[in-house]
Design a protein that fits this description.
Layout: E1 3-10, H1 12-29, E2 35-41, H2 45-53, E3 61-70, E4 81-85, E5 95-103, H3 107-118, E6 123-131, E7 144-148, E8 154-155, E9 171-176
Parallel strand pairs: 2-3, 2-5, 5-6, 6-7
Antiparallel strand pairs: 1-9, 3-4, 8-9
Helix pairs in contact: 1-2
The structure holds guanosine-5'-monophosphate.
Length: 177
Protein backbone atom coordinates (compact mmCIF):
# COMPACT_ATOMS: atom_id res chain seq x y z
CA UNK A 1 0.00 0.00 0.00
CA UNK A 2 1.33 3.44 -0.92
CA UNK A 3 0.74 6.06 1.72
CA UNK A 4 1.15 9.78 2.13
CA UNK A 5 1.11 11.94 5.20
CA UNK A 6 -2.13 13.86 5.29
CA UNK A 7 -3.24 16.95 7.14
CA UNK A 8 -2.58 17.61 10.81
CA UNK A 9 -5.57 16.29 12.74
CA UNK A 10 -4.40 17.44 16.18
CA UNK A 11 -1.64 19.99 16.66
CA UNK A 12 1.16 19.61 19.19
CA UNK A 13 -0.15 22.66 21.03
CA UNK A 14 -3.62 21.12 21.43
CA UNK A 15 -2.09 17.82 22.55
CA UNK A 16 0.07 19.59 25.10
CA UNK A 17 -2.88 21.46 26.62
CA UNK A 18 -5.11 18.40 26.77
CA UNK A 19 -2.42 16.25 28.43
CA UNK A 20 -1.87 18.92 31.08
CA UNK A 21 -5.61 18.80 31.82
CA UNK A 22 -5.52 15.00 32.08
CA UNK A 23 -2.53 15.24 34.42
CA UNK A 24 -4.44 17.66 36.65
CA UNK A 25 -7.46 15.38 36.67
CA UNK A 26 -5.37 12.33 37.61
CA UNK A 27 -3.59 14.33 40.34
CA UNK A 28 -6.93 15.29 41.84
CA UNK A 29 -8.45 11.80 41.52
CA UNK A 30 -5.43 10.14 43.16
CA UNK A 31 -4.67 12.77 45.80
CA UNK A 32 -3.56 11.06 49.01
CA UNK A 33 -2.82 7.67 47.43
CA UNK A 34 -0.34 6.09 45.06
CA UNK A 35 -0.97 5.18 41.44
CA UNK A 36 0.64 2.60 39.18
CA UNK A 37 0.78 3.40 35.47
CA UNK A 38 0.89 0.41 33.12
CA UNK A 39 1.81 1.66 29.65
CA UNK A 40 1.10 -0.49 26.62
CA UNK A 41 4.09 -0.47 24.26
CA UNK A 42 5.07 0.82 21.88
CA UNK A 43 2.59 3.48 20.78
CA UNK A 44 1.85 4.97 24.20
CA UNK A 45 5.41 5.99 25.05
CA UNK A 46 5.19 9.64 23.96
CA UNK A 47 1.80 10.19 25.62
CA UNK A 48 3.12 8.46 28.72
CA UNK A 49 6.22 10.65 28.88
CA UNK A 50 4.07 13.78 28.87
CA UNK A 51 1.25 12.57 31.09
CA UNK A 52 3.55 11.22 33.82
CA UNK A 53 5.21 14.64 34.10
CA UNK A 54 1.79 16.31 34.22
CA UNK A 55 0.90 14.38 37.40
CA UNK A 56 1.57 16.28 40.61
CA UNK A 57 4.81 15.38 42.45
CA UNK A 58 2.59 14.90 45.53
CA UNK A 59 1.18 11.71 44.01
CA UNK A 60 3.53 8.72 44.31
CA UNK A 61 3.69 7.24 40.80
CA UNK A 62 4.94 3.79 39.90
CA UNK A 63 5.46 2.80 36.26
CA UNK A 64 5.80 -0.38 34.25
CA UNK A 65 5.32 -1.51 30.66
CA UNK A 66 3.54 -4.30 28.83
CA UNK A 67 3.69 -5.23 25.18
CA UNK A 68 0.89 -7.35 23.76
CA UNK A 69 -0.27 -8.48 20.36
CA UNK A 70 -3.88 -9.42 19.68
CA UNK A 71 -4.92 -12.22 17.42
CA UNK A 72 -8.37 -13.04 16.21
CA UNK A 73 -10.69 -10.91 14.21
CA UNK A 74 -11.86 -7.67 15.63
CA UNK A 75 -15.53 -8.55 15.25
CA UNK A 76 -15.51 -11.04 18.11
CA UNK A 77 -14.21 -10.94 21.64
CA UNK A 78 -12.80 -14.43 21.29
CA UNK A 79 -9.43 -13.28 19.98
CA UNK A 80 -6.50 -14.08 22.22
CA UNK A 81 -3.69 -11.86 23.33
CA UNK A 82 -0.05 -12.78 23.38
CA UNK A 83 2.05 -11.06 26.04
CA UNK A 84 5.29 -10.08 24.35
CA UNK A 85 6.64 -8.24 27.35
CA UNK A 86 5.18 -8.68 30.80
CA UNK A 87 5.22 -6.47 33.88
CA UNK A 88 8.17 -6.73 36.22
CA UNK A 89 6.13 -5.62 39.24
CA UNK A 90 3.15 -6.99 41.12
CA UNK A 91 -0.04 -4.97 40.81
CA UNK A 92 -1.89 -6.90 43.49
CA UNK A 93 -3.92 -4.48 45.63
CA UNK A 94 -2.75 -1.44 43.67
CA UNK A 95 -4.59 1.42 41.99
CA UNK A 96 -3.69 1.04 38.34
CA UNK A 97 -4.15 3.20 35.26
CA UNK A 98 -3.66 1.50 31.89
CA UNK A 99 -2.03 3.98 29.49
CA UNK A 100 -2.92 3.40 25.82
CA UNK A 101 -2.17 5.33 22.64
CA UNK A 102 -5.46 4.67 20.88
CA UNK A 103 -8.56 2.58 21.48
CA UNK A 104 -10.07 1.37 18.23
CA UNK A 105 -12.00 -1.91 18.50
CA UNK A 106 -11.16 -2.04 22.19
CA UNK A 107 -9.95 -5.63 21.89
CA UNK A 108 -6.40 -4.96 23.10
CA UNK A 109 -7.70 -2.96 26.02
CA UNK A 110 -10.26 -5.61 26.92
CA UNK A 111 -7.55 -8.26 27.12
CA UNK A 112 -5.15 -6.12 29.11
CA UNK A 113 -7.94 -5.08 31.47
CA UNK A 114 -8.88 -8.72 32.09
CA UNK A 115 -5.25 -9.74 32.71
CA UNK A 116 -4.63 -6.92 35.20
CA UNK A 117 -7.95 -7.47 36.90
CA UNK A 118 -7.13 -11.19 37.35
CA UNK A 119 -3.82 -10.16 38.91
CA UNK A 120 -5.64 -8.39 41.71
CA UNK A 121 -5.48 -4.70 40.87
CA UNK A 122 -7.54 -2.89 43.52
CA UNK A 123 -8.86 -0.38 41.00
CA UNK A 124 -8.31 -0.19 37.25
CA UNK A 125 -8.77 2.88 35.10
CA UNK A 126 -7.82 3.71 31.54
CA UNK A 127 -6.06 6.71 30.04
CA UNK A 128 -5.91 6.88 26.26
CA UNK A 129 -4.64 9.66 24.06
CA UNK A 130 -7.11 8.86 21.28
CA UNK A 131 -10.46 7.14 20.98
CA UNK A 132 -12.01 5.98 17.72
CA UNK A 133 -15.77 5.45 17.41
CA UNK A 134 -15.53 1.60 17.26
CA UNK A 135 -14.74 0.63 20.87
CA UNK A 136 -17.42 -2.02 20.75
CA UNK A 137 -15.42 -4.72 22.54
CA UNK A 138 -14.55 -2.71 25.64
CA UNK A 139 -17.82 -1.64 27.18
CA UNK A 140 -16.62 0.13 30.32
CA UNK A 141 -16.18 3.89 30.23
CA UNK A 142 -12.75 5.24 29.29
CA UNK A 143 -11.69 7.33 32.27
CA UNK A 144 -9.23 9.76 30.69
CA UNK A 145 -9.52 10.43 26.95
CA UNK A 146 -7.34 12.95 25.14
CA UNK A 147 -9.35 13.25 21.92
CA UNK A 148 -12.15 11.45 20.13
CA UNK A 149 -11.19 11.13 16.48
CA UNK A 150 -12.96 10.02 13.31
CA UNK A 151 -12.43 6.53 11.95
CA UNK A 152 -9.23 7.31 10.06
CA UNK A 153 -5.76 5.80 10.36
CA UNK A 154 -3.52 8.24 12.21
CA UNK A 155 0.20 8.44 12.90
CA UNK A 156 2.55 10.59 14.96
CA UNK A 157 3.09 11.34 18.64
CA UNK A 158 4.19 7.74 19.18
CA UNK A 159 1.79 6.07 16.74
CA UNK A 160 3.33 4.30 13.77
CA UNK A 161 2.65 2.90 10.38
CA UNK A 162 5.06 -0.01 9.76
CA UNK A 163 7.25 1.38 12.56
CA UNK A 164 7.50 4.83 10.92
CA UNK A 165 6.20 8.24 11.93
CA UNK A 166 6.39 7.77 15.72
CA UNK A 167 8.60 10.86 15.85
CA UNK A 168 6.05 13.30 14.40
CA UNK A 169 5.20 15.92 17.04
CA UNK A 170 1.52 16.11 16.02
CA UNK A 171 -1.18 13.63 15.02
CA UNK A 172 -1.72 13.26 11.29
CA UNK A 173 -3.98 11.25 9.05
CA UNK A 174 -2.19 8.73 6.85
CA UNK A 175 -3.79 8.70 3.39
CA UNK A 176 -3.72 5.87 0.89
CA UNK A 177 -2.52 7.12 -2.50
P1 LIG B 1 -7.76 -2.14 19.21
O1 LIG B 1 -7.38 -3.42 19.87
O2 LIG B 1 -8.44 -1.14 20.11
O3 LIG B 1 -8.53 -2.36 17.93
O4 LIG B 1 -6.44 -1.50 18.67
C1 LIG B 1 -5.52 -0.91 19.47
C2 LIG B 1 -4.19 -0.83 18.77
O5 LIG B 1 -4.32 -0.80 17.33
C3 LIG B 1 -3.52 0.46 19.15
O6 LIG B 1 -2.80 0.32 20.36
C4 LIG B 1 -2.67 0.75 17.94
O7 LIG B 1 -1.43 0.08 18.08
C5 LIG B 1 -3.44 0.15 16.78
N1 LIG B 1 -4.23 1.17 16.06
C6 LIG B 1 -5.57 1.27 16.01
N2 LIG B 1 -5.94 2.35 15.27
C7 LIG B 1 -4.79 2.95 14.86
C8 LIG B 1 -4.50 4.13 14.07
O8 LIG B 1 -5.37 4.87 13.58
N3 LIG B 1 -3.19 4.41 13.90
C9 LIG B 1 -2.17 3.64 14.40
N4 LIG B 1 -0.93 4.05 14.14
N5 LIG B 1 -2.41 2.54 15.16
C10 LIG B 1 -3.71 2.20 15.38
Amino acid sequence: MKTALGTVLISQEDIRHRILEIGRQISSDYAGRAVTLVAILKGSFVFLADVIRAISPEVPVELDFMAVSSYGDATTTSGTVHIEKDLGISIDGKDVIIVEDIVDTGLTLLHVYNILSARGARTLRVATLLEKPGKSKYDRPLDYVGFKIPNKFVVGFGLDYAQRFRNLPDIRVLDEV
